[in-house]
């Protein structure tokens, strides 16, 4: 089901008051409707050319009631607001630095950073001093509010960044553009209803670490630009090609690249189809074959359709535990099935 959202241009300007003090004026103008898919926990929206211009004379913010702070808080807390404005907050200098280094390495041009928030009197973190962006000094209360954490001692910087073009949210009636989505489709991670942002972010980070070509999010997954997902992914959401779509789009992807479908599943005697243990022989046999690895949520597991269309694989365990946390199990699968990890030792 599609909802209508309105794109707005956020304008901030300085107004001189009678006592010669300056204050911020905040205005939002409705321009045109956008259609969006209920892809995330509170609705997803395709990114748009919405701008949020910070007034050039303003270099510091001390109040949590500041309109620009309120705008940034909406970006942090609301998926629909985030995607309608095409921007997200990235908390922590390490994540910002990793995104910057990746995009520099990929030669994707200048990173689109609206502004960089720093604590009053704090030095610019190492590796970020070369960024040609607007610096906004904020009080500890503002930093705490923006970061969503109680202690700001470990938070050196927060960046307001544009959601990258490598992320695509596709409607049900939209045609699949598989080659544009995934330039390197040899290994694609598919997440089936992963609602926990910590697990989703960790899986995206592992996919980057083991050189997978992208991630496909089926309905029911949380937003990869959710604050907790971003914190767990350490910026991987900005680096990995990600598509949020339906089974119809995934089936088009599988057909386009003739991909094999595997799904991680705990070993059980109750399954109606065999569950194969991942081993070196299986890894070697899949070395030159494009494949999708599907992982389901811990609460609900794999969907019935996933279990029906995929070959099920499990991780051999010597202990008595029935299964592993999905991000732990996913990390093992991603490592074992990563490109070039098929030579027997």
TrEMBL record:
One MF term in the entry's GO annotations: RNA methyltransferase activity
UniProt entry keywords in alphabetical sequence: Methyltransferase, Transferase
Keyword Methyltransferase carried by entry: yes
GO biological process: methylation; RNA processing
Domain tRNA/rRNA methyltransferase SpoU type stretches: 188-335
Domain of life: Eukaryota
Name of protein: tRNA/rRNA methyltransferase SpoU type domain-containing protein
Organism: Nyssa sinensis
